[in-house]
Amino acid sequence: xxxxxxxxxxxxxxxxxxxxxxxxxxxxxxxxxxxxxxxxxxxxxxxxxxxxxxxxxxxxxxxxxxxxxxxxxxxxxxxxxxxxxxxxxxxxxxxxxxxxxxxxxxxxxxxxxxxxxxxxxxxxxxxxxxxxxxxxxxxxxxxxxxxxxxxxxxxxxxxxxxxxxxxxxxxxxxxxxxxxxxxxxxxxxxxxxxxxxxxxxxxxxxxxxxxxxxxxxxxxxxxxxxxxxxxxxxxxxxxxxxxxxxxxxxxxxxxxxxxxxxxxxxxxx
Length: 269
Description:
By secondary structure, this protein is an alpha/beta fold. The protein contains nine helices and eight strands. It has a single domain, classed as 3-Layer(aba) Sandwich (Rossmann fold). Helix content is about 40%, strand content about 20%. Strand 1 and strand 2 form a beta hairpin.
């Protein structure tokens, strides 16, 4: 396993940001808690632009929602105001037990890869919760057009997004995957078989890397994964290396580029 200390630091930072967001983000953007079939309580933090209030907008499902929803909402509002992208509803997925966010997300976002689940390996169970509980609940309570869904994940959540892309191709039309933990369990995600996809999909990949001639291991993994995805005729993939940013500070610039890549094409032609 590479850079486990970095993931530990990232988990702590996500927990801190999530705790702050719980205080500063208006409660009117929070749906009622949802108890998942995997035994975990989830909270959905939402952002509904004015243009979406009449219904019919795409949905963006944002993992680590308590931490990153304010960032994505601010970027969306600015890009919509600039007529750079079409508006969409953000559904940020967080945890009812916010103090244990680090442990809960690590289990939810990591595949078992054939081993007995313990503190990791809950990705299949979380996929079931997404498919059968979170997405139907969001679509029943928000002005969402259910035919267009985007999944967004960073770090361990990026690993999960890559896993969902392969194992549940019918669930999301597109994905933004940022500095994903593709190294987890000796990089077994690179060997996961892809289920047949009913429709073409778009994927935007990003990774942090330092300035200078040497790329980070994270960037090398993302470039390798981009090449892998390019071999699938049903996937249109683009990527960006966020130079000079660190594991968490890369999220905002990566989000901006990813949102333009996925939601701006119709407006910028």
